[in-house]
Amino acid sequence: VRALAGVPGRVAIRSQLVAGALVVPRSAVRGLVDTGVVGLQQGNQIVQRTVKLGVTDGAVVQVIDGLSLDQQVTRDAPEVGS
Fold it and tell me: For the chain, which end, N or C, has fewer CB atoms within 10 Å of the first or last residue's CB respectively?
């Protein structure tokens, strides 16, 4: 494909749809490729949990492994070394 300056064109971007995916906000994940870390609420404490990641649309990230639907993650990703 070759683009020429000043010539109108059209671009189609195909994204992947995963029905029934467990997703968390992008802001809740540190890391984006294959694995990431989220803050997991456990009682009165927040612990770091490594999760396996899937597709993202930039706003939310699919979690393939490491979380279940009944667990609550923090809104913001844990800081490095915390």
Answer: N
Q: pTM surpassing 0.85?
A: no
Sign (positive/negative) of CA torsion 63, 67, 70, 71?
A: negative
Q: Say how far apart CA 34 and CA 41 lie, in whole Å.
A: 22
CA–CA distance, 58 with 60 (Å, rounded to integer)? 6
CA distances from 43 to 17, 21, 47, 72 (A): 34, 25, 10, 10
pLDDT at position 18 is 76
- CA count, 13 A, side-chain hemisphere, 68: 1
